[in-house]
Write a structure and sequence with these properties.
By secondary structure, the protein is of the alpha+beta class. It folds into 2 domains: 123 residues, no CATH class; 169 residues, no CATH class. The chain has 4 helices and 13 strands. Strands 1, 2, 3, 6, 11, 12 and 13 form a 7-stranded mixed β-sheet that branches. Helix 1 packs across helix 2 and helix 3 runs parallel beside helix 4. The longest helix has 53 residues. The protein is elongated and about 95 Å long. The N and C termini lie far apart (67 Å).
Length: 303
């Protein structure tokens, strides 16, 4: 009988140990799972806030912080649990950290009442190194002023002028009036990269220019550079070139990209006018590239 009582006691002890281990595993599964869900939500909020705010960088750091803060607060983050900063040596980066305290349920039996969960993200703004959808105009690089009007395509030049038959038109994906007109209307469907050598499209191309301009303006007649939709056909993405002093069909080198809002064109000369704007879009980032920032940028989550 003593032996049986000893064996029964051992079974009770073993069962108790197994029960404790089972409860510990249950606590780990339930509470760790809950913490994972909370952390995933915080990480998503941090990513979205970082991307939203980074669209204002590097031009408006205060605006970037305000946008990120507003986004986080509207998604349930307590201001006391939010940290935002822009490094002095990396003004194109917005760092976001959000925290929450997860109260444990089952793990309380093991003495764990709560734990802190953190979601972090870094959103960064970069100039574009590669784009699709460019219009067939090559604008010479200059000190562009925000909201100022520039000539995207020239009219006839006086004899002896520098362009000798070129009017800032580019041959993208082929030559001829039909291709040129289609590229104005829809943007070039191929990819352009910094450093690409692009042939010019000589001639004033008055007919296809007029046809394309009338079509673009008729699709969105009421927009202005201060009030337009992101899919407005009047947004013209153009390559920037160092010089357009080309004679006949010659190659020019792309050194940047910029966005202009189409203001209009002169039917008599076929000049096209666009207003320089800042714009954020999807595209290939110029990681760390210098001298390529002309107001057209892309934002990425880098951490």
């Amino acid at each position: 009988m003593a032996l049986l009582r000893g064996e029964s006691g051992a079974v009770v002890i073993l069962f108790t140990l197994i029960l404790v281990a089972f409860l510990g595993m249950l606590a780990l599964g339930v509470d760790v799972g809950h913490a994972y869900v909370v952390r995933s939500r915080l990480a998503n909020v941090a990513d979205a806030a970082a991307l939203a705010g980074a669209q204002e960088l590097p031009d408006d750091p205060e605006g970037a912080l305000a946008v990120a803060r507003d986004y986080a607060l509207r998604n349930g983050i307590d201001p006391a649990d939010l940290t935002l900063y822009i490094p002095e040596d990396r003004p194109n980066e917005l760092h976001v950290s959000v925290r929450d305290v997860v109260v444990h349920s089952v793990a309380r039996v093991l003495g764990f009442t709560s734990s802190e969960v953190v979601g972090r993200s870094v959103g960064a703004s970069y100039p574009l190194a590669g784009v699709s959808g460019a219009r067939p105009f090559g604008v010479e690089v200059q000190d562009f002023v925000l909201n100022e009007v520039y000539l995207l395509k020239l009219g006839p030049q006086s004899e002896g002028g520098p362009y000798r038959g070129n009017f800032h038109a580019l041959s993208l994906g082929g030559t001829g009036a039909s291709r040129y007109r289609d590229n104005i209307l829809n943007g070039y469907d191929g990819q352009l990269q910094l450093g690409d050598e692009i042939p010019t499209e000589p001639g004033n191309m008055a007919g296809p220019t007029a046809s394309a301009m009338k079509a673009l303006l008729s699709q969105d007649p009421d927009s202005t550079y201060q009030n337009y939709s992101r899919n407005s056909p009047r947004l013209l993405l153009v390559p920037l070139v160092e010089s357009f002093e080309a004679s006949g069909k010659e190659a020019v080198s792309i050194i940047g990209f910029a966005m202009f809002f189409l203001e209009g064109w002169d039917d008599a000369t076929s000049e096209i006018r666009g207003r320089f704007i800042r714009y954020v879009m999807d595209g290939e980032a110029a990681w760390g590239a210098a001298g390529t920032d002309f107001g057209l940028r892309t934002v990425k989550v880098i951490e």
